[in-house]
Structure formats: C-alpha cells, structure tokens
Amino acid sequence: MIDDQEVEETVIIHTIYLSVSPPPSATPSLLSSRFFVLWVLFEQAALQVEMELLGLRPKFASFAAFLAMLLACTSFTATDAYEVLDPNGNITIQWDITSWNPDGYVAVVTIQNFYQFRHIQPPGWILGWTWAKKEVIWDMRGGQTTEQGDCSKFKGNSIPHCCKKSPTVVDLLPGSPYNQQIANCCKGGIITSWGQDPEKAVSSFQLSVGAAGTTNKTVRIPKNFTLMAPGPGYTCGPGMLVPPSKYLSDDKRRKMQRMMTWKVLCSYSQFIAHKTPSCCVSLSAFYNDSIVSCPTCSCGCQSSTETDNCVQEESPRLASVVPGLDNKGSLTPLVQCTHHMCPIRVHWHVKVNYKDYWRVKVTISNFNYRMNYTDWNLVVQHPSFNNLTRIFSFNYKSLNPYGKINDTAMLWGIKFYNDMLMQAGPYGNVQTELLFKKEQGFTFGKGWAFPHNIYFNGDNCVMPPPDAYPTMPNASSATDMSFRVLVIFLLVILMFC
C-alpha cells in the first residue's frame, strides 16, 4: 500500500525532473521558448490527473504545481523574437566599404528582409546608429538623414550632409533625381517580405564618411543600431566584422570584393511592437446559424473617458479623421468602435460541403481609419492545406515550416487588384475562397474545419476559444476536466496574457 508521504515525494521529484530536463524531442529553440514552460505545466497536470484516478490525493499537490511553474519560469529564458513558422527570419543590415577617401571611405548599406511573411510598409524604415569616433557624412545617395546636425566648425562651401553623432537615415521617395539614386533605393522605405517577392525584399543607400580612418585597422564599426519599420518592434545586435562580400564585374567574368564588410542582425518581437494584439479571428459555418465573433476586448476595450479611443461608424467626427503621424513618429491606429477593438478582423466561413470537396470563404476587414495596408499578407495554419485544390483571387505559397508537412499557407493580394487593403469603410475588405479535397476520415466535427492559427502581416491574431467554435447539430461540447488541471491552465493564461 502506497502512503501519502511516498506519493508526495514522487510528485515533487517528478516535478523537479520535468523542470530541469528537456522533453525528449527538445531543441535549443524549444528550450528557449515559452513552449517548454507549457510542456512542464501540462506534464504536471497529467500526472495529477493520473493520481486522482488512482484515488491518491497528496496534501501538497498544489505546492508541486507551483514548484513546476516556478522552476520552469526560472530555468530558461523566453525569447519572444523567435518565430516558430519562420525560424531563420531576420533583417540583415550589410555595411560594405567600397573605396577609401582621403579622410574616410565610401560605403553601400543594404537592408535585406529575410522574413518570409513580415514586410515593412509605409511610411517605411528608419535606420539609426551611433558613430564609434567623430565621423561625419559628407554625401549620400539613395537615402538621406532626417537632420543635418551642428556643422558650424566646417568652413567654406564644403559642408557635410550630416554631423550628428547618432544620425537617422530614411529612404528617398520614388521619383527622386537620377543623380541621387542607386540600385534598390528610392521606394519610400517599403520593403516586401522575402516570401512575397525576394527581389523587392531589399533596400540600399550609399554614404561617404569622413574623419573615419582610411585603413582596415583604423575604421570602427558604428554602435547601437536601431531599426524602426516604421514603428518599434525590431531589436538589432552589435555590428560584426565578416569576410568582405564579393560581386561580379559588369561583364560577369571577374569576381571582385569589397574592402570591408560589417553585418548587423535585427529581429522582430510582437510584444515589443504592440502593447495589445493587432488582429482577431471570427468563425462561422453553413451547418450552424450562429457566428462566433472575435473575443471581446481582443485588442483592447472601449474607453469611457478617452475620446480618441475609437470612432463610431456613422460619427460626424469621421470627416475630420485624416492619416498622419503622432508625436512619437508611429502611425497610431484609429479604429472603428467594436467589441473587439482590433484594426484587422479575419473571418473564416466554412461555406459549402461537396461530395469530395469542401469550400471556405476568407474575408479580411480593415477597421483602421488611418491605414491602407499595402502588400498585406495572411498566414494560415490548417492541416488541410496539404489537400488545397484551388484558391481564388489571392496568391498562395506553402511555407512548409515542418519539412514535408504542408499545413501552413501564406496568402497575399494580386498586384493592382487587391494587394492594398483599404482603410475602414465600404471598401476596407478583401475576400477569397479556398477549395479543399476531402481526405480519408475527414469530418466537420470537433472544429476540424477551422484554422489552428492565423497571422496578419506577421502578427499572431487572437482566436476564439475552442469550446466556442460552431458545432455540428446535436454535438455536445461538454468536457470532463479535473479542477486542479483547470486551475493550472488558468494560471498559464494569467502568466502569458
């Protein structure tokens, strides 16, 4: 007969083991993410359910659950910037010194977007850094600094383009004079995602730097790189000296290389970019008359005191709403007053059931009066994308984040047709329909027809809770859950919401 003391010791030992040892299929990325914390907690919950089924109720079971949570949270560091669907995504800033000047060098700076489904939209990127010494920028092509700074110590007609210790650079606008342009410049700071168009996922500018040293041993890498795209969200690492980049001559017969090359990697975090989520998902199906709306307050709640919190659809104030930048330099959404308060809503409707196929209609609605979403994209996770037969009016690309398993699709608009999602109003939506082939064992029951996750412009959208999904007629949604498991699950939600 096992007594309570032995059971309690087993629980605590098992808890400590789970918290300090990885799951069997763990990878370094998994260990550094919040998924490991969830794994520990649910393993603990499963153990507790098993004990209850055996009729064992140790006195300190709640302490064991708390210990699991504490050890899991302190043993590993969460990395919010890690993207499961795009683990290799980043923005790389490459600084190539092409030639030397009497007091410095000429460099080409290239911003390359390697994110599969995250792009930089208007008003475009803003790149900043701090000089390591007392460098100045004599001249620029393809870009310009936002301020000149104090250049009073320079006399005559030779005045630098920028004398600031920490310059801020923006892209030139389309239509700039040809003598101010270089390759991959002058797009207003807009950079397409790598998955949509690799050729447009790059932006460049050239600068002539003075007071910087004239050899590989005397120049210094700039520090404290920052990237606004166009708002916060990106964190840049230190500049790294790498082997000089190589390129082909104009006749393609000779390989040449730069004098020096530095690289800076910048990663994105949705938690830094937005205080609240930026999109939500609603669901419906032909077999159920109800519509599952976005969860209430998905992206915030209506304020009774702040007049600028949202705008009613038929409010006279709409006439005075114009797109513009706020004092912080970021485009603040002005959304239509809704129960979810999200700038973007994605609606997934299971439309038709055929003998061998089934059809879904997807509608993306813009509730933001201050933003036209250019080159938008949507990423959807659903196991039936392996059986996608046809898609209407959208572009489609399979991401395959798990190798041969095709359960993740990237959708975006067709150029000059629906690649721009207009601001809130009668034209503020785009639609498509997806036709899937039924595989063996397919069923509409238990929410199988609905997506696991949806991302808009790279940001994870708030999904309705699974128990709220439209159900089949006469389907029961009752579940049998242990009280202690429910408590642990609620604690997880409180920790990460």
TrEMBL record:
It is found in: Cell membrane. Keywords: Glycoprotein, GPI-anchor, Lipoprotein, Membrane, Signal. It comes from the Eukaryota. It is a lipid-anchor; GPI-anchor. GO terms for biological process: cellulose microfibril organization; plant-type cell wall cellulose biosynthetic process. GO terms for cellular component: plasma membrane; side of membrane. Belongs to the COBRA family. This is COBRA-like protein. It comes from Kalanchoe fedtschenkoi.
